[in-house]
Specification:
Layout (H helix, E strand, L loop, with lengths): L9 E4 L4 E7 L5 E7 L20 E5 L4 E5 L35 E5 L25 E2 L3 E6 L13 H18 L7 E8 L11 E7 L4 H17 L3 H12 L3 E4 L3 E4 L8 E7 L11 H20 L7 E6 L13 E6 L1 E3 L2 E2 L4 H6 L8 H10 L5
Helix pairs in contact: 1-4
Length: 379
């Protein structure tokens, strides 16, 4: 169940010994605790009830046929609060946070200031009709996933068991959100570092469920569909075969996953991580694949931090098949991109990239891959 009207603590048993407990928040949102081991969750959110923001607008840019969500209420969201006021830490004396309990392993809850919201009735995306396209509502879902209750850490410093819980939460949320008929695509991602726009420094990510295909997903879908029609093969499968054949852009791999710098990388450091047995989305991952993810996730992010010996700002985004189309051609993979090209230097997405979408790479992908392979990992 996605929404609760009481504090009953509904439980769901998942893989890897993970138990999800659902509780209601003070303003009617739902918080989901993901725990390994026997943990009782009954904490009550005692904060005063607040009104939830209304739905924003969806407006079509007829020059590109791309949707823009207008969510003016997000202007008031939290911006880089001090540690003692972090809304993603567990509740403690002097701090009533988003998480009512005094500790947690992994939690997922509905964003307090969402870009997309739940419809109150049946909803259909407006038909695209150029400049005549009707105004739409920003229908969808925005969830926050907190990777740990430890404020001063990062994803690559988590224990592998902890990362496995995060993976199980991603799988679970994809399964549940896919049941909503107004959701077209589900996109988990993590922003790390103020350079890429982080407004809360606690280790966390987000899960966006869109009512449309985002522009990059739409491009990837069209390319994969065209390739499949012409060859009968899956595009990402063939890309990985090429990377294995070439070898020089592979960073690391294990029995179930492979990490590589893509042939036409667009950022100074870009890493793709994909399951060797390809799947359409999180719901198709086997337990063995999910179990093998934490070790390679830690390694690639530690290598990224090790390139210059400093924490690297990055965006780590999961690409997967849309909910209702393209599942025969689209494949799950994790894309990590960093705009840092040297200590104290960033690659700005300036005229060519921002205005025209034409990326210019200052470093050969093969050089980037070599730098990542050369990093000496911590013992």
């Amino acid at each position: 169940m996605s929404e609760l009207s009481d504090l009953s603590g509904s439980q769901h048993h998942l893989a890897a010994g993970v138990i999800r407990t659902d509780l209601a928040m003070a303003d009617g949102r739902t918080i989901r605790y993901y725990d390994q081991g026997h943990v009782t969750r009954k904490a009550i959110d005692n904060r005063p009830k607040e009104d939830r923001p209304g739905l924003g607008e969806l407006r079509l840019d007829p020059l590109t046929n791309e949707w823009t969500a207008i969510a003016a209420h997000r202007q008031a969201r939290a911006f880089l609060p001090p540690k003692e006021l972090c809304p993603l830490c567990a509740t403690k004396p002097g701090l009533d946070s988003e998480i009512a309990d005094s500790s947690y392993q992994v939690v997922v809850f509905d964003n307090k200031s969402p870009s997309f919201g739940t419809p109150i009735d049946d909803y259909q995306l407006p038909v695209i009709d150029g400049i005549k396209t009707k105004l739409g509502q920003s229908i969808g879902k925005c969830e926050v996933i907190c990777f740990t209750d430890h404020h001063e850490t990062s994803f690559n410093q988590l224990e592998e068991d902890q990362i496995r819980i995060v993976m199980e939460a991603w799988r679970d949320r994809t399964r549940e959100l896919s049941k909503s008929k107004h959701i077209a695509h589900i996109a988990p991602f993590e922003n790390r570092g103020e350079e890429v726009g982080v407004t809360l420094s606690h280790p966390h990510g987000q899960i966006y469920a869109y009512p449309f295909l985002p522009p990059r997903t739409e491009k990837m879908y069209r390319a994969a569909k065209k390739f499949h029609k012409e060859t009968g093969k899956v595009l990402l499968d063939e890309i990985i075969k090429r990377e294995i054949k070439d070898g020089e852009r592979i960073i690391t791999q294990n029995d179930h996953w492979i990490a590589y710098v893509p042939f036409a990388a667009r950022y100074p450091f870009e890493i793709h991580v994909a399951p060797k047995r390809s799947v359409a989305d999180f719901t198709e991952l086997s337990d063995e694949q999910a179990d093998a993810y934490p070790s390679i996730a830690k390694e690639v992010l530690q290598r990224l931090d090790g390139v210059f010996g400093i924490p690297m700002a990055y965006i780590a985004a999961w690409h997967q098949a849309p909910v209702r189309k393209g599942r025969e051609v689209m494949r799950l993979h994790w894309q990590i991109t960093s705009i840092r090209r040297a200590p104290g230097k960033l690659k700005y997405l300036a005229g060519s990239e921002s205005a025209f979408g034409a990326f210019i790479m200052d470093l050969k992908p093969e050089q980037s891959a070599q730098q990542l392979r050369d990093v000496r990992l911590p013992n």
